[in-house]
Amino acid sequence: MNIDYQLLSPQLRRTQPLEKDIELGFGQLRTDHIFLMDFQNGEWVHPRIVPYQNLQLAPGAMALHYGQSIFEGAKAFLHQDNEIYTFRLDKNCERLNQSAEILSMPQLPVEMQLNAINALLDVERLWIPTTLGASMYIRPFMFATDDSLSVRPSSSYTFAVMLSPSGAYYAKGMDKSLKLLITQKYHRAVSGGTGAAKAAGNYAASLRAQQYASSVGADQVLYLDATNAYLEEVGAMNHFHITRTGELVIPEFTDTILKSITSQSILSLSNELQTVCGLTPVQRKISISSFLNDIQNGDIIEAGGFGTAAVTASVGHYILDNGEHYTVGTGEIGSKTKLLNQYYSDLQQGRQNAPANWLMPV
Ligand code: PLP
Ligand code: COI
């Protein structure tokens, strides 16, 4: 892939590394450039890196009307050897293609996605945060650009990558546990729908439920399946709980749950997690009745969420539509969740050995 760098703006390029004490937040900062590439006449064409700027879009662009729009979220870290490493980026590229398939959008070869992201990261090297634990959040996205009001798959698309030097997703971070609302009023996805895709519309559809959660004092929603029988996932994370017997349980992936790369990584680190925190990661269907029962009888001792942005979040409380309240253990961040978060962060940041090819230098 021959990337056009001619539009790159030399005067915008940083000449100094990002300041150590800069206030990062999550997803707030932008770097100087974005990557863009178009899909026209059945081909990906004109890969280019240009200054970060507003995009030109026809008012009838189909992404705006019918929602053909998907995205990914990945991270790159500055390691002690002063190199930048992406973490499991190939998995994000594969998942973008799975989302594309669900939304009838074109495939974009993983190799092309990797080249695009690495090229942009290379140009924006000096934007990588140097603060411990911070990262470069990578946001690839693809959207439909045909100017058409017919409901059909668009024939033209744009693929873009933007970067955001970021700190923790939840301001509370691992300092305080979250409270989740378990509701029967709203659902994130139904079988046969788009729940397994990282589609923009899934997030738009979650906002009403999120507002409802805030109104009852909860931080996020833990969604149930459409029959209100089984736990699914949180708005921007997979869910997990830890049992007294040392199981780390993640709800089984179905077509209504986003296949979290963090969850998949945790599931494949079974031996390591046994050694580090005495946990055996497993997946199964979890009924809401057994879940609440097990919290009450003390069989569930910790809970939380997994996701790229959040890494590990701890959940201490659940609240139901009728106001019933359940506290997991003491309600504070559990010791095993802390160990898990530390181990996974160490692995991403190069302080623990990661499995082969999980970390790739830019
Ligand atoms: N579930 C949803 C709905 C998400 O938005 C995310 C975030 O990406 C996740 C789960 C976690 O997935 P991953 O670990 O791949 O970031
Ligand atoms: C991520 O964890 O990378 C996400 O994309 C979640 C996001 C909706 C903030």
TrEMBL record:
Its EC number is 2.6.1.42. The keyword Transferase applies. The modification N6-(pyridoxal phosphate)lysine is found at K198. It catalyses: L-valine + 2-oxoglutarate = 3-methyl-2-oxobutanoate + L-glutamate; L-leucine + 2-oxoglutarate = 4-methyl-2-oxopentanoate + L-glutamate; L-isoleucine + 2-oxoglutarate = (S)-3-methyl-2-oxopentanoate + L-glutamate. It is an enzyme of class 2 (transferase). Pathway: Amino-acid biosynthesis; L-isoleucine biosynthesis; L-isoleucine from 2-oxobutanoate: step 4/4; Amino-acid biosynthesis; L-valine biosynthesis; L-valine from pyruvate: step 4/4; Amino-acid biosynthesis; L-leucine biosynthesis; L-leucine from 3-methyl-2-oxobutanoate: step 4/4. GO terms for biological process: isoleucine biosynthetic process; L-leucine biosynthetic process; L-valine biosynthetic process. GO terms for molecular function: branched-chain-amino-acid transaminase activity. Keywords: Amino-acid biosynthesis, Aminotransferase, Branched-chain amino acid biosynthesis, Pyridoxal phosphate, Transferase. Its cofactor is pyridoxal 5'-phosphate. It holds the Pfam family Aminotran_4. It comes from the Bacteria. PANTHER family: BRANCHED-CHAIN-AMINO-ACID AMINOTRANSFERASE, SUBGROUP IIII AMINOTRANSFERASE. Acts on leucine, isoleucine and valine. Belongs to the class-IV pyridoxal-phosphate-dependent aminotransferase family. This is Branched-chain-amino-acid aminotransferase. It comes from Pseudoalteromonas piratica.
